Amino acid sequence: MKSEAITNMNGFAENGALSNTHWELGRIVTDLRSARTRSRQGCIDKGDREMPSREALRGIMDGFFGVIFPDQFGAPDLTEESIDYFVGTRLDQTLRALKVQIERELEFSCNAEEDHTVKHATKAQQVTRDFAAKLPQIAAMLESDVRAGFEGDPAAKSIDEVRFCYPGVLAITHHRIGHELYSMGFTLLARIIAELAHSATGIDIHPGATIGPSFFIDHGTGVVIGETAVIGERVRLYQAVTLGAKSFPAREDGTLVKGRARHPIVEDDVVIYAGATILGRVAIGRGSTIGGNVWITRDIPPGSRIAQAQARVEAFSDGGGI
Predict the structure, then answer these.
(1) For domain 209-322, which architecture applies?
(2) C-alpha separations of 162 from 147, 168, 176, 280, 302 in Å
(3) In whole angstroms, what is the distance from residue 220 CA to residue 156 CA?
(4) From CA 110, how far away is CA 172, in angstroms rounded?
(5) CA-based end-to-end distance of the chain
(6) Given this model, what pLDDT does residue 254 score?
(7) Structural contact between residues 135 and 67, judged by C-beta atoms closer than 8 angstroms
(8) Domain 54-204: which topology?
(9) pLDDT for residue 83
(10) DSSP 217
(11) Which residues of 38-54 are buried (b: 16+ CB within 10 A; e: fewer)?
(12) Phi, psi of 208 (to 5 degrees)
């Protein structure tokens, strides 16, 4: 009679399931260990320290939404008398949680052989305090973004609808908070926050991108904004717009040169319609309108109106692309 529970030599328990021999688990586990060892070569030993938590940062962002937009994301029974108490309490809880994640990034980024626990705790406290001081400015920027969404979309029936429902607002809220952390040197936290928005909306904004006030992404799915992109004030994008790099310079050994400005500059009052692709460190001049599905790889003068047909004519006339 077959035993109800069998434990194989690798510690995998079986209860009516296929045994280790069906999957060759021992060999696969050994090969996976070898792959991990190879991937860690040349990396700093992190010991048993934990990385920042994606789930904790999701909760932190929920906290910031409640603080910045309490009428939409706060407690359901808020009144004029209770709203400041709610914001203060939620902010304290959120900042305490953020401090833990800042400390984790500090610990994770240093050599495991060094013990900087006390120093990291002190620095995390100061960084969190500095970040908190910038929240009113972030909130003001976000209010301008919400207003731009309401004024720029004829389908929007109310400011509350834009704050609560629009994926572009969710994405830019994550970006403005992530960008501040990125600017303070916490690139891992910032990137996780950016990816939370990316996975929820399909909008991929690198936290290094610089974006001015009154920014609006309508619909949003498929928008990509690269690390060194610079976007001015009152800019509006539609779905599937790419502000990307044209090329990636490499060293003699083939490794990429990082840190160079390689993404577009979009000046004030520009509208870029669905599917447009703008590549390289080019400037889109103030007040320009970029039509749908055009491909741009050179500077566009201020006040230009670039349509798909015009882009094709110019590309053929000079033997290259726009």
Answers:
(1) 3 Solenoid (2.160)
(2) 8, 9, 17, 32, 30
(3) 15
(4) 31
(5) 75
(6) 79
(7) yes
(8) serine acetyltransferase, domain 1 (1.10.3130)
(9) 95
(10) E
(11) eeeeeeeeeeeeeebee
(12) -80, -15
CB distance 12 to 26 below 8 Å: no
Q: How many helices (H) and strands (E) does the chain have?
A: 11, 16
| Maximum alpha-carbon separation in the chain | 83
Neighbours of 142 (CB within 10 A): 22
86 touches 19 (CB < 8 A) = no
Where in the chain is CATH 1.10.3130.10? 54-204
Distance between CA 166 and CA 173 in Å, rounded? 11
pLDDT by residue for the chain (322 residues), tens only, comes to 444 444 454 445 555 454 556 788 888 999 999 888 876 665 555 555 788 999 999 999 999 999 999 999 999 899 999 999 999 999 999 999 999 999 999 988 865 555 566 788 999 999 999 999 999 999 999 999 999 999 999 999 999 999 999 999 999 999 999 999 999 999 999 999 999 999 999 999 999 999 999 999 999 999 999 999 999 999 999 999 999 999 888 888 878 888 899 999 999 999 999 999 999 999 999 999 999 999 999 999 999 999 986 655 454 444 443 3
Locate 264 and state its tokens.
């577009």
Torsions phi, psi of 33, nearest 5?
-60, -40
Rounded Cα distance between 272 and 291, Å, is 6
So what's the pLDDT on residue 11? 47
The pairing of beta strand 13-14 with beta strand 6-7? antiparallel
Burial 81-99 (b: 16+ CB within 10 A, else e): eeeeebbeebbeebbebbb
In this structure, what token pair is assigned to residue 110? 């240093």
DSSP label at 228? Answer: T
Residue 124 carries which side chain, given as an amino acid letter? A
Whole-angstrom Cα distance, residue 88 to residue 77? 16
Tokens of 268: 């004030």
Q: What are the start and end residues of each CATH 2.160.10.10 domain in the chain?
A: 209-322
